[in-house]
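Running log. JK asked me to keep both predictions on one page so they can be read side by side. First protein, sequence followed by its tokens:
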Amino acid sequence: STTANLVHPTTAIKVCRDPDDDHVLSLALDGRADVVVTGDQDPAVLHPFRGIPILSPRAFLDRHPGA
């Protein structure tokens, strides 16, 4: 089954080359994400970020066939 949770991030993150991507990492931390999937290279260079893998869409699909 698939579930979704609404997350209002509160953790302040300032680590990305592009500050707009910090919100995504904050959301991942506060939402306890299993993985961040992005084609954006700015957050991808931080892989893994505080234990959360940051994968390209291709890498995610290679690791999770049928997803």
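And the second, directly underneath as requested:
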Amino acid sequence: MGMRKKMTAWVMIVVVTSFAGAARGADIYVSPAGGSDGTAADKPTDLQSALNTAAGNGNEGDTIYLQQGTYMGNFSYLPATADNNGDLAILGGWSSDFSTRTVDPANTILDGSNVDRVLTLNVNPNDNFTCPTSGDITVEGITVRNGRARVGAGILAYTRAPGLVRLEHNILENNTALGTDGGVGGGCTLGCLNMADAAGVDIRLTNNILRHNSAQGDEEENGEGEGGGCVILSSGTTWIVNNLIHNNSAGTDNIAYGLGGGIVLDMYAGDAYVINNSIVENIVHARPGSTDGTGGGILVETDEEDAWADSNVHLYNNIIYHNTCAAPYGAGDIANNIAGSGPNAGTLVVSHTNYGSYGTNAGAVAPQLTNNIHADPVFSRSDESLFYLTSRSPCVDAGDNDAPYLPSLDLAGQNRIQDGNDDNTAVVNMGCYEEVLPGSFSWHMFLPAIESNAR
């Protein structure tokens, strides 16, 4: 097929970020160089001071504006009192005078220097990882890298019901979860650990890239590594949409086993929608001489203390392929790409998804399989267009236009739904990218650059 002339190297759109129902709080401006007063754009403060200010501001609902640049450190936000139920938004990509914004996570970087977790939000790690308050937590337009912690090495973000955790247009890379009893969530851990507080928490993981993160196991304590890319503790409604999750790992090779190389979706209750993601080339390791560990791409599991009956998981239009684990099935089998565990109740729907060779291993839950394929996705391998579909891919025009929560744009900001195979019928692609390549691009195409003059 021919190159569409309307394509450009970057997609420019105008956005206004708003938070429905949120109280309007303080605007806090932050630069890498810091300053003395974060409440005015001409006097930016440092990031930790901004988080401290937001934590002490009651239930206002603060917004932190990050100037483009690199922020070295390990940052945390913990409200001063339990009745602080305000929202917090951390928005990257702002110009030096905070007049315009370009939402490209490559230009705003938080770097943890492999010392500690990069970003801890609304969690008390010293009190069994409790989440003391509710409220909406948003992180948008930021690269989070080089974190190191037992849980959520890149980002650990919790909230209590009826709160929301939202990550959008971020890159989470090179973060390592490791502890004496194993690591949980290399790139991120989202939700709420305490069941009494968790019911009804919503989570949105949309338009992100999670790559080269790991959740390592521990040999002495026989602790597994769980969720190389991310662990999501789902108890309300969870949306995992338009993400590229690749080359993450769980466990430690020949030392400790892993679960969920790409992502672990731990279902307490509610509904989860996994729509148009590319979860590829992730790996689960095993102990010497063992075949334990499962879910090279994604592991859907039920909390061991709660029934699966209240949980419903829907996978549509995904590419979950080229993931590996040590479970004794074929290299392309469902155990390597999709695995599940839990009592025989509830629903696991897998529809219009490419997940390797045919298989039905999903623990005790019999998955509902509809119009799936099991074939090489035929990705582009050039640096400029890694994991885009080429015109020979069986994933082109192979999705479901009626999938729930189908996104209107793909990860690169291109319109869905397009006619990818030029048969005069527009059908959504599988995976995170809608545009189809006749060959490799000669320009860099990544996440969209989004310009905005509105705050």
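Observation for JK regarding the second prediction: The chain is about 5% helix and 30% strand.
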